[in-house]
Input
Amino acid sequence: MIMPGMIKVIHAFHAPESAIASSLTAYLLGGSSLQLILGPLSDHYGRRPVMLIGSGLFFCCTIAIAMSNNINQFLIARFFQGMGLCFIGTIGYATIQEIFSEMDAVRLIAVMTSVAIIAPLIGPLLGAILIYYTNWRIIYVLISIFAIIAFWGLKYFMPETVTDKLTLSCKTVLYNYRDLLTNITFMSGSMAVAVLTIPCLAWIALAPVILIKVAKLSVISYGIWQIPIFGAAIIGAWILRHMTTKLSLPTIIIIGAACSTISLIITGLIPWWFASTNYIGLLPGLILYFLSMSIIATPLNRLIIFATSVGKGTSSALLSMILMLIQAAGIEIANVIYVSHNNIIFGMYCLLAGILFICILPWTKTQTNARIT
Output
């Protein structure tokens, strides 16, 4: 919701254009800051109480953003708000994985993804409408209201999945993280997912610059152009749900990887036939990419987390931290290379991420097949 309003945020605070992407980077870095301790804490104290603390933290920091008076306060508050993101990746999805069997968990997360993608689907358009008629601070007031509703829902309906609580000691925690860091399947899979999602985050971070600043579109047009891109992600989640009834997870991953690689090749090549500032050349590849990413991400996450006997809270914590650190670095690199406002360079950056992904993935596939056998 805030991305179409970031142009007005930097104007209000007299900040540089680079702060638009940096706001998302700050959010992701905040999301990676608590990961390593949240996993062990939730394995010891339980998922539910830790999740409630995270929800409360998100609410407080969202209010702080609405009250910020300069770009530094805004970015710092975004960092702490991002800490609330830790709890979703580390605890929320770990809870789902623990409650349901393999295919049931994949199907349910596919449904959850379809619902969750509605946010980035309608968020930019709704944010654009709010920016057009009101102040950008209203967006964070609205999000804080949603955060209160989320806290209430978690408090009264979230189950506790940790029945045999693990011992919390520095020695045990370090031993578990050592096992994860030396697990080839876990590490290669985590890096593959992180690299695959870089074009997605880079587009979200830079779309206001590409569409509003460079292409001179209105904030409403910006929101409308996001619909086919995030709509493709919803279709991909729907396709995944049906694929799980007929195909194994390794097969789904192979199909998703092939489609993702082809889509990023298209993203890298088509812009060469357009002007360097024409955004149309990016859209075909990005639309196919968002669809493909929805197909492969959930099955790959499932196999990564269950590639080790370490507690799922701890596994999810390290996975989430790796994802967010690599994603944050990817966004900042995209931010630097797009200083020239050249969409050909942005497309080639996406292509490079696709090549790197397809080079890392076979390590995960080989190890995964060995474990499944």
Remarks:
- The CA atoms of residues 267 and 283 lie 8 Å apart.
- The two ends are 45 Å apart (CA to CA).
- The chain has 15 helices and no strands.
- Residues 184-214 form the longest helix (31 residues).
